[in-house]
Each structure stands twice: as structure tokens, then as C-alpha cells.
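Researcher: Here's a chain I'd like modeled. Treat it as a single chain, no partners, no ligands.
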Amino acid sequence: MGLRERVSLYNRYTEERIGMVTPFRTYYLIMEGTKTEPIYFQLLEKKLLALRVRNNIRLIYLERTLNDRGSNTPDQLFRFLRLFRAQKNDPDAVYFMVFDRDSYKNRPNPEKSYLDFLNRIKNAPVRLIVSSPCFELWLLLHRLNAYRDLILPDQEAIFQNERLSSGYTYISKMVKDLFGFNPKSMIPDFFLNGLNNALKQSPLLTSDPVRMATEIGENIGDFIAELMQDVRY
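Model: Modeled as a single isolated chain. C-alpha cells:
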């Protein structure tokens, strides 16, 4: 097992500047996805920089080495993160896992498998960033009135998120048809112009990972809202 650290753009103040403000909180993130989620979070960093948000959070992304690139089940991510935390010995840091409830849909009993995992790690010092069924649900929310016009009328099909082809699931095809790009390969820079739409619609969905076993939901919005809290005000 090996993890590389990639420091985000938030690690950008001089040592003198750091000494003048509230100390940084370090957030370590490991992601199930190796394409859509990393692309999105890179764009999010640029967006927060453009908004000049000062949150005193240093984001560090944990990237699997080449030998571990295919090891991306939630159980494997949790083991990686637990071992990394023990080796890092940074007790004040916060550790996050980003994964989809969809990861369990091919299990004999997807709901039970997902809930069993949540139960196994419920006392671990790890925060979960979960989407149900998948991260692309969060992308849909960037469209004005997406919840009312697209998600609410189609909840069952979205929750099931069947694979339509080798390149698309039901939701990734919705994203392609709606926005004109395949989120598995790229997200255009202007996409985060719709971030406020997503943040406003996020509370219409459950943010409770347990309820996501049987409901559409995500808590990505809660995490981003936390990042957008400016310590100067």
C-alpha cells in the first residue's frame, strides 16, 4: 500500500502570514473515483481562490500509487486511510473518505453491505463524504431547478443508476445530455458557475449516509459549505 500527498492551492501563505492568522486545519481526503471527483475538486479550488475565500483549511489529497490504483472499494480506502493516519501521527488533522453508495450495487444485498460498512467504521476518526447513488448526482444539482425538473420526477431510475453502456450509467448519461460533457473524462472550467445552484438545492436531499441506503442524497454540499466559511467574518 502506498499513498502520495498532493497539497492543494490552499497551502499558499508564507510562514510569516500563517503566524498572523488562526492556524491551518489540515484535511486529508482520499477519493474512490480517480477521474470525476479529482477533476471537480481541482475546479472547486480555483473557484474558492477566485472568490478569495480564507478558510484556514489546508486540503491534502491522498493519491494511490500505481500499484494500488485499482484498489478503490470503500473498505480498501478505509484501510489505506487508517494506516496513513497511524503513520502520519497528526492528531489534529481531519480525515475524509469520498465514495459512492453505488459502490455496493453489485453485491448480493447492496443495502445490507453498505450499511454493514457504515456500522463497522462508525466509531473511526474518519468523516464520510457520500453520494447516493454517485457523485454525478451532485453535478446535476448545478443546473437551476434540477431537483424539481430532473431529480424528483425520476427518483427511482436515478437511485438504481443502471449501466447503459461501457461509457455511461443512467446519471452520467443525464449529465452528458444536460451539460454536453462526459464527467468521466472532463468537466469544463465554467461548470462551477452553477455552484450556488447546487448549494441551494442540496438541502432538498438527505445528507445522512444511513438514509442514503434507500434514498437519493449527498453530503458534498455540506462539505463545500464548510470550505466556504471565511474566518475573517
